Amino acid sequence: MKAKKCISQQELKSLFYYKDGNLIRKTTNKPIGTPTKVGQHGHKYLITQIKSVRYRVHRLIWIYFNGNFEDLSIQIDHIDNNTLNNKIENLRTVTNRINGHNRKDKSETFCIEALKYKNETNYRAYARVNSKRHCCQTRKTLEEAQADRDFIHYFDEDEKILARIQELKPSEP
Questions:
Q1: Residues 85, 111: one domain?
Q2: Is this prediction's pTM over 0.70?
Q3: Cβ proximity of 127 and 161 under 8 Å
């Protein structure tokens, strides 16, 4: 698959100005982008077309401030998981793996499960590394398990994820 040629930072700055998470056309003073469902998860992104090429607006905003990025393995992530919040302070570059970990549903890559035993419910965070599930210790509350998830989920290397899970396990008496 051939990557499309991206618009340059210089060209973006000649056509638009930035204001509160939007690129505004200099000719009309109107923000660009139409909310459109995109991708396998059906997230809504602002999409626009420039010279017959479709772009996601958050990528254009990133280029507007930081210039083009050549590495195709890098993605632009919405820190707060709101794909319509395109403020530059809400955008960051991440690998595909970290972007997957940051999804709202956490899918099967990084999850929290509820364990039921008799009248008790416990929670634990776990991560899939090389198709194998690695679990943190059980917790009494969902909030504690979420803290475990947040403690390990920003790493993109398997060894670092496994090391963080080991840190969370109780030491043997």
A1: no
A2: no
A3: yes
Q: What is the DSSP letter of 139?
A: B
Find out whether 65 and 87 touch, Cβ atoms under 8 Å.
Answer: no
What is the Cα–Cα distance from 112 to 7, expressed in whole angstroms?
40
Say which CATH number the domain at 50 has. 3.90.75.20
- Judged by average pLDDT, the poorest of 21-25, 79-83, 127-131 is 127-131
Beta bridge partner(s), residue 77: 92
Residue-wise pLDDT for 26-48, tens only, equals: 999 999 999 888 765 667 899 99
- Strands (DSSP E) contained in 2-161 are 16-19, 22-25, 34-38, 43-50, 53-56, 74-78, 91-95, 110-117, 120-129, 132-135
Per the document, the length of the chain is 173
- CA 103 from centroid of its chain's CA atoms: 6
Residues 112 and 96 in one domain: no
pLDDT tens sequence across 109-137 = 556 555 655 667 788 777 767 667 777 78
Helix (H) or strand (E) holding 12: helix 9-15
Are both 87 and 15 inside the same structural domain? yes
Domain boundary among 70, 100, 130: 100
Our count of domains for the chain comes to 2
In a domain, 164, yes or no: yes
